[in-house]
Amino acid sequence: MSDLYNATTFTNRAVTPTGLGGFAYPDRPTVFIFLPGGWSGDMWHCAAATALCQSEDKDVIRAYAITIIGMKEKVSLARDGTVEVSPDYSIIYGNRTYNYFHSIQIPALLARLNKLESRFQPLFSGNITKGSGEYLNKIIALYRANYGNPNAVCSFMWPLTPETEEVANARPFQLPPNVAKPVSLAEDVLFPNDDDIPELATSDINPPYLFDGNEDAVTGPGHMLHLWTSTTITMQYLYDPNKRAGRIQYLQEQLGNISKTNSTWFQQARALADKLVMLATQEGVDRSNAKRVVLFNYRKGDVNKQHDGNIGLLSSVSQFGATKGFVVIALIVNVPQEEVDYLRINNHVVLNLYAKGQYYDKRYTATFWSIVANELQGTIVQGLIGGRSGSMDIASFMGVNTCSFDEPVFGKGYKFDDEYILAQGGQLLRLMSQYPVMSIVYVSVDSWYDNRQIYNSYDELDERGLGEWLNRAPSDPHICPAISVVEVRFTQAGSKSLDTALFRMENDDMRIRATSLRELLGLQ
């Protein structure tokens, strides 16, 4: 494997004060992307963007991006007026995300948000980088000093990391009169899974960058970037079809450490791939015939629940796929066992991405999709289809032929109200910006059913879009269903969604530009 794809290439070189990963380019400032710890799916976007920023492709954007993972405790009032403090999702998931970044030696800083902050605010960046940069300097110093600690780095650094200033927080939690400020939770309550420590990428661990919050290289307004810029940066690197394969191979090594074939995560991924081949063989698929497997991402998520798998969607894809010669296997993620049993009773083939009760290093997920892309795609597997989620993103970043379904909220042919368009439109546009590595098809709006929840549910996908994806070879260009800026801006809500999405995704000073989305919509 060449140096371009060697995971240690960028961490063992001499480090200079203005460079990251051993590189020193005074004209490349450091910028920061804030990742709330509870938003686990967006972890893959930040990991891909920050890894690519440290690759040898130095001229794509004018900055090095660093992820800051924000975590906080949950504070609420009991009925008797007492204050209750408990672990927030950002604690539970942020700890694992932080340790994952550390294990693959991609820079990530811990921001300990004040426990009285009522919700995450992207505008909290003033706490991190405003003024003297004192807070940023403190967490960078902690990162350097404790980088090689054998304990789980996040939980070790948690009590050391200063909290952001309460006075600078947006919408702080209002305590009732005469109620004392709650004390922090004990470490053993915050981090109950410290035995699940990812093994480090190398035995000689050193911080992969050296800088401080006051360095002159931090220039231009707004060097605290919105989370969506991670998608933009990743797609700027993957946009060029002539360089895409090499950059995906680089991501496979960086995010999955796939060259470490004796590692626990690689062996687990290999076992799952072997089970997938076994199931495919039982369904009559092998390398000697034209029959292929389509994986259906049957997941239950915490957000975007209108994109969850259900038996109606699975059945419709299975039935339509069968007419084209495909076998559909449901890839199970976070689904109750009784629902899995119901799928089996109804003759659906299922494969659990994560076995219940087993610990998985996050490199396992990236490695599994790398094996699918490198060894099974085109001969055993046609691709992966599912609703908008992080599970789809990491597969596409590893080179898998992915297809995400979503709601067609734009255009005069659909009857979504303004409030719903404003809630979902930006997310759909962000997804569409990924079309060079991910196809997008629509749900059939006629298959909507009332699930008695606040989100929509559908039983079928649009067959024309699904058929177009199934008819393509995995190596063909990924084409999003045709859409123009006129359709997006057909309503005032759609126009506002586009303006907001571009505002979040772009930064002109750093040459961070939503190139693929602009090309798709015909924007200059």
Share of residues in helices? 25-40%
Proportion in β-strands: 5-15%
Q: Give Rg in angstroms.
A: 23 Å
Poorly predicted runs: 1-26, 215-221
Q: Quick one: how many beta strands?
A: 14
Q: What's the number of structural domains?
A: 2
Structural class: alpha/beta
Number of helices: 18
**Major beta-sheet overview:** 6 strands, parallel
| Arithmetic mean pLDDT | 84
* Overall body shape: globular
Tell me the span between the first and last alpha carbons. 39 Å
Q: What is the strand arrangement across the widest sheet? A: 9-8-7-10-11-12
Quick tags:
524 residues; 36% helix; 14% strand; 2 domains; disordered N terminus; 14 strands
Describe the protein's architecture and organization.
The strands form 4 sheets. A 6-stranded parallel β-sheet has the order 9-8-7-10-11-12, sandwiched between helices. A 4-stranded parallel β-sheet has the order 5-2-1-6. Strands 3-4 form a two-stranded antiparallel sheet. It has helices at residues 43-53, 89-103, 125-129, 134-146, 153-157, 187-190, 229-238, 241-256, 264-282, 311-323, 337-345, 363-376, 390-397, 418-432, 463-471, 485-488, 492-505, 515-521; strands at residues 30-36, 64-71, 73-77, 83-87, 108-112, 224-225, 292-299, 326-333, 349-352, 381-387, 402-406, 438-442, 448-449, 457-458. The protein has 18 helices and 14 strands. Residues 1-26 and 215-221 have low confidence and may be disordered. It is globular, with a radius of gyration of 23 Å. Strand 3 and strand 4 form a beta hairpin. Helix 1 crosses helix 8. The longest helix is centred in the middle third of the chain and has 19 residues, at 264-282. It folds into 2 domains: 3-222, no CATH class; 258-407 and 443-480, 3-Layer(aba) Sandwich (Rossmann fold), CATH 3.40.50. Helices cover 36% and strands 14% of the residues. It is of the alpha/beta class and 524 residues long.
